[in-house]
UniProtKB/TrEMBL annotation:
GO terms for molecular function: heme binding; iron ion binding; monooxygenase activity; oxidoreductase activity, acting on paired donors, with incorporation or reduction of molecular oxygen. Keywords: Heme, Iron, Metal-binding, Monooxygenase, Oxidoreductase. The keyword Phosphoprotein does not apply. GO terms for biological process: lipid metabolic process. Belongs to the cytochrome P450 family. PANTHER family: CYTOCHROME P450 (PTHR24296). It comes from Eleusine coracana subsp. coracana. SUPFAM superfamilies: Cytochrome P450. PROSITE patterns: CYTOCHROME_P450. Its cofactor is heme. The keyword Oxidoreductase applies. Heme binds at residue 429. This is Uncharacterized protein.
């Protein structure tokens, strides 16, 4: 397979989808010693590995070495360490006020950062990279709950994005390490050449970022274990009662006797940034891209939003002015078609397109394939979303209606082993509900207030990375919609 893989590397995910489509959903591949792969997108295999035989399919030590910047944190961990960390994350996410704050902060950031920047881009009357704008937005949106600090990447002077770029490098090099023998990338790492050079430059940037955030965080007043931020003292409704870092700051596993961060703390905080920023950023970019390409769907979403705007007009005499509409998370939460359009985009463009596991013991998969202990498993979530056997003959079409129940009143339930964009089983995403709520609110507001047009000739295609970002960004022009309300 090697020659055909090399020839198709630039379109890796589509190539895998084609091969998996032609092989009934699974195939085995052999590389140099130590590279025995089973590649699958068969939902029954996925259920077996991620749910029923979960303990036999950890991520494995090799996986952890691919993402060394995230050390022993929950993304890399297996077994007891992963279980303990996951319980802790669950506890943090359910801590009083955190999810509510995340929803409010996102909504406020749309109003005070994202909409003004899009207006500024429109006034400039020049094409701009919408993916870059969304990356800035999700970076600010994630850093605040993690550190309690506003990183301010969304301002119109477009401050440098070396930290998001360093995060991207971690994911690109992580992908590269999947594709070559371990000895090869280790040698390149030692010599600091090729993609490994990019990672070597990224690591200190991320470390300095965490140091800077912790320093800024420290400057805030601590009162009874609760962080009182500058913003809060100033009376902003967007200030957090509690941030994620505060849950780790008294723990000797994460902080030394002098209060200095240990490696585990750096790794864990970077892990939170990656979990929140990279996934949401990629999803928003593909979602808006799909809406630009399918005006019928964009119009249907606007039709679903129109009654909310009309109801507001009834309540407020000033509603007919030219101000932009910002939707509240509570308003967009119940919207079924918007939700369906989001999931349809995530089906075709899952932000985490590949999951990797390693078999602990020999096993036979539901597809009949035999795996040996140590075999690497690649689950192509991207291909699964494009399989005719799973989604029907129109699987290549962007058609949100497939997600709406026959009665039309609800989003159809699809089990996670068939729609694995948020993973499935014991390791499934802990940020699913909050991120869905946030993304619905963001897209509703952006779509209500703006029309976009992709610049002619601009090619949109996935980058080779562990996160499904766009290789060339998303070059668009924006135009304010002035809706007579
Ligand atoms: C579009 C939005 C998101 C998508 C598609 C997504 C997807 C995923 C996926 C595929 C995994 C499994 C990764 C793996 O182990 O290989 C995961 C895990 C996780 N996600 Fe999300 N995620 C999203 C947003 C978020 C957000 C906003 C947060 C929290 C702020 C979050 C927190 C987590 C955590 C803590 C895990 C680790 C679970 C574990 O290892 O037990 N996610 N997510």
């Amino acid at each position: 397979m090697l020659p055909s893989l090399v020839l198709n590397l630039h379109r890796f995910h589509d190539y895998l989808a084609t091969v998996l489509g032609a092989t009934g959903g699974s195939f085995q591949a052999r590389g140099p010693p130590g590279m025995r792969f089973l590649i699958t997108c068969d939902p029954e295999n996925v259920r077996h590995m991620l749910v029923s035989s979960f303990v036999n399919y950890p991520k494995g030590e090799e996986f952890a070495s691919f993402f060394d910047v995230m050390g022993d944190s929950f993304f890399n961990a297996d077994g007891e360490s992963w279980r303990r960390q996951r319980t802790r994350v669950q506890h943090i996410m359910s801590a009083s006020g955190l999810l509510g704050f995340m929803a409010r902060w996102c909504r406020d950031k749309v109003e005070t950062g994202l909409l003004p920047l899009l207006s500024y881009m429109e006034d400039n009357n020049a094409p701009f990279d919408l993916e870059d704008v969304l990356t800035r937005f999700t970076f600010d949106m994630t850093a605040m709950p993690v550190f309690g600090v506003d990183t301010g990447r969304l301002s119109t002077d477009l401050p440098p994005t070396h930290v998001p770029t360093a995060m991207d490098a971690v994911m690109e090099v992580g992908f590269f390490r999947h594709t070559v023998p371990v000895s090869c990338w280790r040698l390149m790492r030692r010599l600091k050449i090729g993609p490994e050079r990019k990672l070597a430059e990224a690591q200190p940037v991320l470390r300095r970022f965490v140091d800077e955030m912790l320093e800024r965080r420290k400057k805030k007043k601590l009162k009874g274990g609760v962080i009182i931020s500058e913003e809060q003292t100033a009376g902003s409704r967007a200030a957090p009662d509690v941030d994620i870092a505060s849950f780790y700051m008294d723990d000797p596993e994460y902080v030394d006797e002098g209060g200095e961060p240990r490696e585990f703390l750096y790794a864990t905080l970077i892990n939170y940034m990656v979990a929140g920023r990279d996934t949401v950023g990629a999803t928003l970019a593909w979602f808006l891209y799909n809406l630009i390409r399918h005006p019928r769907v964009a119009d249907a979403i606007r039709a679903e939003l129109a009654p909310i705007v009309a109801a507001r007009k009834l309540k407020s005499a000033t509603a007919a002015d030219d101000t932009m509409v910002v939707f509240e998370p509570e308003e967009t939460k119940p919207l079924v078609y918007l939700h369906a359009a989001l999931f349809e985009s995530m089906r075709l463009y899952p932000p985490v397109p590949i999951e990797r596991k390693e078999a602990l013991a020999e096993d036979v998969l539901p597809s009949g394939h035999r795996v040996r202990a140590g075999d690497k498993i690649l689950i192509s979530v991207y291909a699964m979303g494009r399989m005719e056997g799973v989604w029907g003959e129109d699987c290549a079409e962007y058609r949100p209606e497939r997600w709406v129940t026959a009665e039309g009143g609800a989003v159809r339930h699809v089990p996670a082993h068939r729609f694995a964009s948020f993973h499935a089983g014991p390791r499934s995403c802990l940020g699913k509900d909050i991120s869905v709520a946030q993304m619905k609110c963001v897209v509703a507001t952006v779509l209500w207030n703006f029309d976009f047009e992709v610049v002619e000739g601009h090619v949109v295609e996935p980058k080779l990375s562990v996160i499904l970002q766009m290789k060339n960004g998303l070059l668009v022009r924006a135009k304010r919609r002035r809706v007579v309300r």
